[in-house]
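Lecture notes, unit on protein representations.

Consider one protein chain, 808 amino acids long.
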Amino acid sequence: MRISRPRSVLLAGAVAVTLSATALPAAFAAPSSTAVISEVYGGGGNSGATLTRDFVELANAGSAAYDLSGFSVQYLPGAPSAGSQWQVSPLTGAVAPGGRYLVAQAAGTGGTVGLPAPDATGTVAMAAASGTVALVSGTAPLTCKTAADCASDTRVVDLVGYGSAVVREGSGPATGASATASVARAASLADTDDNAADLSAGAPTPVNAAGETSGGGEDPGPDNPTEPGTVRVHDIQGTTRVSPLDGQAVTGVPGIVTAVRTTGSRGFWIQDPSPDADPRTSEGVLVYTGSAAPTVSVGDSVLVSGTVDEYYPSATTQSVTEITAPRITVLSSGNALPAPVVLDAASVPGGYVPSAGGGSIDALPLEPAKYALDLYESLEGTRVEAADTRVTGATSSYGEVWVTVEPKQNPTRRGGTLYSSYTDQNTGRIKVMSLDSTRPVPVANVGDVLSGTTTGVLDYDSFGGYSLQATRLGTLTDRHLKREVTRKQKRDELAVSTYNVENLDALDDQGKFDTLAKGVAVNLASPDIVSLEEIQDDNGAVNDGTVGSEATLKRFTDAIVAAGGPRYSWRYVAPQDGKDGGEPGGNIRNVFLFNPARVSFVDRAGGDATTAVKAVRTRKGVTLSASPARISPLDESWSDSRKPLVGEFRFRGEPVFVIGNHFTSKGGDQPLHGRYQAPARSSETKRVKQAAEVNTFVKSLLAADKSARVITLGDLNDFAFSPTMSALTAGKALKPLISTLPANERYSYVYEGNSQTLDHILTSPGIRRFDYDVVHINAEFADQASDHDPQIVRVRADGPGHGHHGHH
């Protein structure tokens, strides 16, 4: 079983590796007298090749075994781009003294001879002519992209660049690699840390730890059998999430081709028309063809031979069972397809997924009648259909739409599906994609319906889990979802809003500014104060030390005027360069806009990127030590994260304190649909600390004046039912207004078909009369200016003689 990075579209190749035992300081380590990368071959399965797959061979010139536990072989393209990543193949076992160790990599569709039984197997499709292979102490992907940077990474044990590779040892890469030639060390295994001198091209000669050579053991049986073998699809799939035959060769597996995927992760699905009686064992499986387009057609009756593999899209996801390096015999064409399994409220169970106490659920026997994810896993690779599905997540730019097969499950007022607790998951959500390039997924908003039946094959990927790869799409019924417009605040109401404007900077196109501006001027009815999240510096992701946002804010406020809104003023505290997280170079920050015709800002000097604001008790109530200013900016809870912005405003002569927040994101949390259950929420620890810091500051204001009017708002990146919210509201210092809405309206964000709340407005006890609204203009729509909906609270001012000093 393997974990893979995004699959390469390069042709398959093979690599043999000799390891150098010492870690590398500033220059590559002294030449190794023990483990080295001995051979690298990236042409396996290419046109003209004899071998069917790529390989990397390691060797040990020492007199003691070289332990590879926790090590990996990693591959980088020869000319890495900014987006290139090292692809990792974990290793186990050891290299015997004088012995070899064979790492099989991806297979192509060419070649006739298999490798000897590999000692480790990866899924990397290496290029035949140019690339870099490293032996690494550890399994975390390397990040270096130059020879010098890799030389200074102490995890690199040995490294071979071939062809025209940028990353290599010594004067140059080893040359001569091709579809029919590997690069290999001399029999002496000499290592001078110069790839060009140490390795030369020749016919590939893979050797495994047992001393076997190619042709010795990977491909039993005839290449193209005409009679089915003994293994069926349900034997491959087994009764758990991982195949009992993982890593084993299979011959003549029968099935009908039910769907073909010609882009991205290419391949086709087969399904056995003669199922067994066990509901846990899927009758369908993906046949992965790699860079080669499938040569079969839907309805073909085939026999497939190859190697069973569990492909993990990422380290925390579940796996996809597949047959790799396939050899295919077509027996007949035009056969009827197996009937699809119906997914609906009656067939999907109420439980979501079993728990393994935070561990992997891979080995748990499936219970498809009890858990939805077990049902979907038991149908992996098989034909399914769903009728009249309501859209719960709008069509994305990737051509994906989320629907529910359980229309009565936690519906929102506007047609979504509400996410209301960690323990009550929405089992009916499923992602729909189209396998027919001539019929893409229609552009749909939340609440629309895919009418009629949508039919296809059930697949799994890292971006949301189980997905219906549609061969036939239902037709779109447009429910005409409207963008909301909130009411105008009354003369004696202070309107305060929060809006995450999604990395807005002065280099963005005018259309984004105009749409966001209309949201403020029209949909939010021109609030008196707007607390913005994700305002970037004036040149966005350009990383040159710029930290000001004046040009960005001038464009935005000009656009608001053009949309019919007031001329807003602004206040912010510029961050230290590179200290607040977000997009590198963007210097993301929180900003206050305010309408000076309705509200005034109390400017008090001293607020900067590193100075903590304090509550100051005066005869007239509490004030801020500086305004605008930041809450505890040097506290570790805000490291590499957006600091809260605090400002003192006056409305109708009375002070109001506003705190704009953008807590750390959920990046790094394990997915709801992943292999570890219950999933770990690792990012939560930091948000709870951030919430506690804000809570402590609010309490300091209330300690000085218990009736102080405080509005805390922003993108908190967490739910109303989260520990983050408990820490923020501790001691009843703040009331979360989302909880005052009807349950089916408590959301501001849609993720993987779940309507949920990440944005919040909270008020102190001194605010007693208010009107609160989430204004749905983005999250439910395919066309959106931001992925967040804004929120607004309208706070009633106290009457004459009833100041904020407690005379209520």
